[in-house]
Design goal:
elongated, five-stranded parallel β-sheet, Rossmann fold, Alpha-Beta Plaits, five-stranded mixed β-sheet
């Protein structure tokens, strides 16, 4: 750290000591301000956000050195603190360090050399500490991003099958414990193979992105989610939603996709892209299995296709 940018607060009830320390530190090109007691130091510190380090006497009337450390550390202020004292009792040094002091110096004839070395060492340690904290924060953020990427479909940007498998099980468990309804909707883009054959895979990918976005944008509750289930299939999880509510969501999704009005000249259902959906809904019991509900929704989806597509079919209770 550049000393010219380092601002040090000296705290001592002895004016002569304050003046002496100021001269020593200023000779090292540090900027110096001073306070004559702990209370004044706390006031200055909280008013001046530019203070980088505090050099404080241990024994002062009112708020002493230990009180100063305690007040700052309880306020979660990590400013480095060097404690000075006229005594060489090791118990006092240990107590100061335990409370959060960064260094402990004895006022003697060597103070001119020891304080400059101490300031340099403590500031370098603090710089490395801040750097380490930033690196850890960056690493945590990158790990969080990687974790999120692991649960996202690379093409559509919505949750992938892995996310569905993991989080649907969690929501299923909550539904069992709370004895609340749980619904799943499976969607399939109608005649998507014909779409790819007609318009090419690049446009097919664009179609998948737009359909995924339409399905996602239809959802309003934070707990609900849609994921790419595989190929041109999408799965929607609706916790705490009964069949009636799931039907409303499914129909809104089907209508939103149709409103995209994406041309599909080879569709045998409409001249634009449509989807077929199947709904499974249940209030699960302890012996209920999520896979059975998904299978019911899947069969209902294929029933929707058999009945002409571009429609929603409910699974039998």
């Amino acid at each position: 750290m550049d000393p010219q940018k380092t601002k040090i607060l000296i705290v001592d009830d002895d004016a002569f000591v304050r003046e002496m320390l100021s001269q020593i530190l200023e000779s090292g090109d540090y900027r110096v301000v001073s306070a004559e007691n702990g209370a004044d130091a706390l006031d200055q510190y909280h008013k001046d956000s530019g203070i980088d380090l505090i050099v404080s006497d241990m024994n002062m009337p009112g708020v002493n050195g230990l009180d100063l450390i305690s007040s700052l550390r309880h306020a979660e202020q990590d400013v480095p603190i060097i404690i000075l004292t006229a005594t060489n009792k090791i118990k006092i040094a240990i107590e100061a360090m335990k409370m959060g002091a960064n260094d402990y110096l004895i006022k003697d004839e060597n103070i001119q050399d020891t304080i400059l070395m101490s300031v340099e060492r403590v500031m370098e340690q603090n710089r490395l500490k801040i750097q380490n904290l930033r690196l850890r924060a960056d690493l945590e953020e990158k790990n969080k991003q990687l974790e999120q990427m692991a649960f996202l479909d690379g093409l559509t940007g919505i949750p992938n099958r892995r996310y569905f498998d993991d989080f649907s099980v969690q929501e299923w468990g909550r539904a069992i414990r709370g004895k609340i309804p749980f619904s799943v909707i499976l969607f399939d883009i109608d005649f998507f193979k014909f779409y790819n054959d007609t318009y090419g895979h690049q446009q097919g990918d664009d179609c998948l992105k737009k359909v995924a976005g339409a399905l996602k944008d239809t959802l309003e509750r934070h707990a609900d989610f849609v994921s790419r289930y595989g190929g041109e299939e999408f799965a929607v999880v609706l916790p705490n939603t009964d069949m009636s509510g799931a039907c409303s969501v499914a129909e809104a999704m089907r209508s939103t996709v149709e409103a995209l009005n994406l041309p599909h000249e080879k569709s045998q259902t409409a001249d634009h892209v449509t989807v077929s959906g199947g709904i499974g809904s249940v209030v699960p019991r302890e012996d209920s299995e999520l896979s059975q509900l998904i299978s019911k929704a899947d069969r209902a989806m294929y029933t929707a296709k058999e009945k002409g597509r571009n429609r929603i079919v409910k699974a039998e209770p």
